[in-house]
Design goal:
The protein is of the alpha/beta class and 168 residues long. The chain is built from four helices and seven strands, in the order ααββαβαββββ. The strands form two sheets. It has a four-stranded mixed β-sheet. The protein has a three-stranded mixed β-sheet with strand order 1-2-3. A hairpin with a 7-residue loop joins strand 5 (138-142) and strand 6 (150-155).
Length: 168
């Protein structure tokens, strides 16, 4: 068993990547909410899902536990915090750049939910640019991508398809 310090444990936890977007750490995605070491050495990590029912949560939890166990921390608990709900605003600038570097369009500002929320049956209009050529001449091809938190677009300038991480 290794003596846990918040700094050492935090460094380990911050190295874990998202299973669906491995160019992002859980910290850069904004999912890793808290790192604590309790009296007696128990490590407690707190994560928030990107959306309710996110299938990657179990893998994130297991990856966090494994990286800490491999470093000699035997007593690890991963807690899930649902409130406040995750927001794409929590993605760090380093995370947004990593998305762009890997050909994904980073989300813009998340919609505000204070007050009435307008409902629409039409696709959401997003102000975004192609991550490859930078053109804003893009067309939505599918509101749903390979994961529920992404939409599919095609650049009408360079003709490349790309994924956009949705604003949540």
């Amino acid at each position: 068993m290794t003596t846990a310090t918040r700094s050492d444990v935090g460094d380990l936890a911050r190295s874990v990547t998202d299973p669906e977007m491995p160019m992002l750490t859980l910290e850069d995605l904004g999912v890793l909410r808290d790192v604590a070491v309790e009296d007696g050495g128990r490590v407690v990590l707190t994560i928030t899902p990107t959306y309710s029912g996110c299938p990657a949560m179990a893998t994130m939890r297991d990856d966090l536990v494994h990286v800490l166990h491999d470093a000699g921390h035997d007593r690890v608990e991963v807690r899930v915090r649902l409130h406040p709900a995750w927001s794409s605003d929590w993605i760090t600038e380093r995370g947004r750049q990593a998305l762009r570097d890997h050909g994904l369009s980073a989300p813009g500002p998340a919609p505000r939910h204070d007050g009435p929320v307008p409902l629409t049956l039409l696709p959401v209009r997003r102000d975004l640019a192609c991550p490859r050529c930078g053109s804003d001449a893009v067309a939505l091809t599918s509101e749903f991508g390979p994961t529920a938190c992404k939409a599919m677009y095609r650049c009408t300038s360079c003709a490349e398809p790309f994924e956009h991480v949705k604003e949540i």
